[in-house]
Amino acid sequence: MRLPPPGTAVPFPLMSFLIVCGLSFSGCSGSRSPILTPAPDFPAIIRPLDGSVGTVVLVHDRLRFVVLDYSFSAIPQAGSVLELYRDSTRVGRVRLSRWNNPTTAAADVLEGSPQMGDTARPD
Predict the structure, then answer these.
(1) Domain 54-121, what architecture?
(2) What DSSP string describes 8-48?
(3) Minimal CA–CA distance to 122: which of 89, 101, 86, 94?
(4) CA-based diameter of the chain, in Å?
(5) What residues form DSSP beta bridges with 86?
């Protein structure tokens, strides 16, 4: 296919062909990429970092104790009574034992039936 000499009118089919070829070689597909948005039913989990909040990471039903993770907050003193919450609903109570390390602590279950993922905080 020969291009017309400069200064002459370019037929419409040839012009559209050149535009399509130019867009395909330039990497532009002519359509916009979709904007990613979070799913509307995705629950937002907000955990305060200013208080002493632990997360239940292990539950031993038979011996009635739990292990709490305090990776992002300070561990309360041994003997402290903590309330357990699941989705902002109180589900039990535990007492911290003397065993702990820098990020975890064991606690005896006083009431309720804790599950992994519950949060423990003093009230």
Answers:
(1) Beta Barrel (2.40)
(2) SPPPHHHHHHHHHHHHHHHT--SSPPPPP---TTPPP----
(3) 94
(4) 93
(5) 89
> Which H or E run contains 59?
strand 54-60
Residue 105 and residue 97: Cα distance in Å, rounded?
A: 7
Q: Which residues contact 90 (CB under 8 A, 6 or more apart)?
A: 83, 84
Question: Model-level pTM greater than 0.85?
Answer: no
b or e along 108-121 (b: 16 or more beta carbons within 10 Å of the residue's beta carbon)?
ebeeeebeeebbbb
pLDDT tens-digit series, residues 22-43:
655 555 555 566 776 666 666 6
